[in-house]
Specification:
- The protein starts with 14 loop residues before the first strand and ends in a 14-residue tail after the last strand.
- With 379 residues, it is an alpha+beta fold.
- It is 30% helix and 18% strand.
- Helix 1 (37-43) packs across helix 2, helix 2 packs across helix 9 and helix 6 (209-222) packs antiparallel against helix 9 (308-329).
- The chain has helices at residues 37-43, 47-67, 81-88, 138-148, 187-193, 209-222, 270-275, 297-304, 308-329, 342-349; strands at residues 15-22, 27-35, 95-104, 174-175, 235-241, 250-255, 260-266, 289-295, 333-337, 357-358, 361-365.
Length: 379
Amino acid sequence: MPKTADTALPDPSRWKALAFIALAQLMVVLDATIKYWQNSFKYNSFSFHAVSMDLGACVQTWRMWAAARGLAVEPALWFDEERLAELLGVDPEAEGIFAVVPLKWAGPQPPSGRPAAEGPVAVRRGDVERSRTVLTFDALVRMQAATSADAAARPAPGALAPAAAHPVDRALAEVALPPARALDADVRTALRARRSSFGRFDAQRPVTADQLAACLAAASAGSRIGGDTGDVRLTRLYAFVNHVEGVEPGSYAYDPERRGLRRVKEGRPGEFLQRNYFLSNYNLEQAGAVLVPTVRTTAVLDAVGDRGYRLVNATIGAVAQSVYTAAAAMDLGCGVALGFDNISYIEELGLEGTGEAPLLIMMIGNERPAPADFRYEIA
C-alpha cells in the first residue's frame, strides 16, 4: 500500500503465487511471493511495508474464496525460506516468500508410481526481468534479511498471547449497534465489485448502522489469519463516525464480543480527520465513517522476533481486504490509505500507554451517483 496514494489491495503486479504438487503427501502447496522491484521502483524502501500488507490481502482473498466452498486455507508464515527460495529459483534478496499454503487433496488418490527424484529438485522455469536498470534500496534489503532470518523457527503455541489486543474498556459508554446487514452477494461477485472510491464519498446519504456493523464484523473476522499464527486476536478496531444513521458523531472503540461500540470521544471528527490526512484525493469528512485497526507491533516483535513484522502487516492487509469486500457486497464505497499522521491518532484515541499503533485508515460511505469512471473491461 503506497504512502503517497490510495491503496487498492491486492495488486497482482506486486505478488505472485507459485503452486506445486507434493505427490507423496497428495497435497497442493501455494507459495505467495513478492518481487520487491515491482513496487520499490516507485516507493523506494517504503515498499516492504506496502507489499507485506498486500500479501495479507492476497491470502485473505484465498481464505474467503475457500470458505464459500466449505474449504479452509491455513497459511504458514514460518518455514525454511532459504531452502524454498532455492527450490523455486528466486533471488532471496530480490524476492521474499511470505506464505506457504497447503491445500489438502480431497479427491481420489492418484497412482504413486513415479520414481524418486535423483539429484537436487528445483523449478525449471522462472520469470525474466525486462527492466534495463534495477535499483536496490539498502533499507529494503535489510528488512528482507531481518524478517527471513530464522524463518524456520516457528513460534511455540501461545507465543503470541502476550501481544494480544487489549480488551475493550467496558467503563466507556456503550453504544449498541443493530445486527450486521447480511452480505447477500456471493464471494465472486463481491470480489469483482471491490473498488477504491477515490474521493467519491457523498455525506448526503449516510451509512446505515447495520452497514457499519457489517464492516466492523468483517474487519474483526479478517483479523485472525490462522495457520501457524494461532487464533490470537492482534488487532483492535476504532471507528470515527461522521454520518451514520442512529449513531452520534464521535470516536468509538469496537467491542467484538458484544458487537457494539464504546464511546471514546464525543463530537464531529471530520476536521481532525482531514487535518491529519496528507493527501488531497479524499475528503474524509464526507465519508460515513473511518475505521482504524491498531496492533501492538512492538509486543508482537518481542514475542516472535523480526518475522513478526510480516505477520503484523499481513494481518492489517487481511483486515483491509475484508472491509473492502464487505463494502462491495453492500454496494458501499470504500477507500484505504496510509497517508495519515498516526501519532495524532494515538493522541486523539488516548493510546499513548497501550502500545497500539494505527497502521492504516479505512473509509466507508455512499458515493455520488453516476460518477465518471474508466471502463477498463472494454479498453
